[in-house]
Design a protein that fits this description.
By secondary structure, the protein is mostly beta strands. About 5% of the residues lie in helices and about 20% in strands. The strands form five sheets. It has an eight-stranded mixed beta sheet with strand order 13-14-11-10-15-16-18-17, with no helix packed on it. A four-stranded mixed beta sheet has the order 1-9-5-4, with no helix packed on it. Mean pLDDT is about 80; it is low at about 1-50 and about 335-359.
Length: about 350
């Protein structure tokens, strides 16, 4: 995603007005800050109250680097409204990302991260030493060689220069045939992400088009658009995720391309609904794919549905589908210079799955 540091990731993230906002970790602020927004009833306390907007108390402590504020904003469709301004550090709150790439072909699942399955559905696959060793079989292409056959050491991007040269769609020649991993330490010292999200979701007249930055996870990390898997695999690289389904680049910091349970948080309802994972850029909540019984909902083209408690909301796709949602149901805010976020220099549109080897 060709984005600048301190970029404004805009969108419509509605906010269920709360008197208490939790999650700031600025040294000059308290863990709990006070909002001037009028408090409204929560669906967790009133089953007949349709929930529309962000509940900031669902975010992890430390998800934001400064107190959330409300600012004036205009959607891409021209609607004047107010937005939440959420500023994050580009790192997931409460945990250290990784591991990503194994170091030898003998390493087990605990030594590496995850990657999309080749058929673009179901669970992520473990990046073990054996997986690296047999990439030629997995993708039915004997050109794969992401390890040194003499030493059994895995080739990975061990420096910032290698990270910057490989974590991009047009991988530099010397970094092809690598497992790609980057570190948070490679980010600029003043790196931040700023999300502008309207305080009330506004249903869009047209839901077609690209899904760029999808939203924000409950740990403050970005829910990113589809990864450019065709370019990644075409350069004989694996852009390794950690077990949570995310990885790092210089433009986005740590960001998710898959949901694997790490940001799930259940609401205090007793209906067995799927846990919340974050909020989309149009303000509607995103829940995990399956409910407590392991069942999926009937969804529209955007992967959304409506119930009496939550109103309209999304359910994320399976971990290997290279998407969270299919389209934006609501209006989003367009920053200067282009749409709200997007895959690095392009990539699959509208939540396309990773290509199969024969595609």
């Amino acid at each position: 995603m060709s984005l600048i540091n301190k970029r404004i990731l805009t969108g419509l993230v509605a906010f269920s007005a709360l008197a208490t906002l939790v999650g700031c970790n600025s040294e000059t602020e308290k863990d709990t800050v006070t909002s001037t927004v009028t408090e409204t009833a929560s669906p967790t306390s009133q089953a007949n109250q349709v929930y529309q907007g962000i509940n900031l108390t669902m975010f992890k402590k430390g998800a934001f680097t400064e107190e959330p504020t409300i600012v004036d904003c205009t959607t891409a469709e021209g609607t004047e409204t107010t937005c939440y301004k959420l500023v994050t550090s580009g790192a997931p709150a409460g945990r250290e990302p990784g591991p990503f790439c194994p170091r030898t072909t003998n390493d087990g699942p605990e030594d590496g991260g995850k990657w999309f399955s080749k058929d673009g559905s179901g669970e992520l696959v473990d990046i073990t030493g054996e997986f690296i060793l047999k990439l030629d079989e997995y993708y039915e292409d004997d050109k794969w060689a992401v390890y040194d056959a003499k030493t059994n050491k895995v080739r990975y991007t061990a420096t910032k220069a290698a990270c910057l040269g490989a974590a991009r769609p047009d991988v530099e020649e010397q970094y092809k045939q690598n497992c790609i991993e980057c570190e948070l330490a490679y980010l600029d010292d003043d790196f931040t992400q700023t999300y502008l999200i309207p305080t009330t979701p506004i249903p869009a007249k047209n839901t077609a088009g690209r899904v760029h930055t999808v939203g924000i996870a409950l740990d403050g990390a970005e829910l990113a658009g589809p990864a450019p898997v065709d370019a990644i695999l075409g350069s004989y690289t694996i852009a390794a995720f950690d077990d949570c389904g995310g990885h790092i680049n210089e433009h986005q910091g740590y960001h998710y391309h898959s949901t694997n349970g790490c940001t799930d948080k259940s609401e205090t309802t007793d209906d067995g609904h799927a846990p919340l994972i974050g909020y989309a850029m149009d303000g509607y909540p995103i829940y995990a794919m399956k409910n407590a019984k392991g069942e999926e909902e009937m969804l529209d083209e955007c992967r959304g549905t409506t119930d009496e408690i939550r109103g309209y909301h999304y359910h994320a796709a399976s971990p290997s589908e290279n998407m969270f949602i299919g389209c934006m149901h609501g209006e989003t805010v367009r920053p200067e210079g282009g749409p709200a976020g997007g895959p690095p220099n392009g990539g699959p549109e509208n939540g396309e799955r990773p290509p199969r080897p024969e595609e």
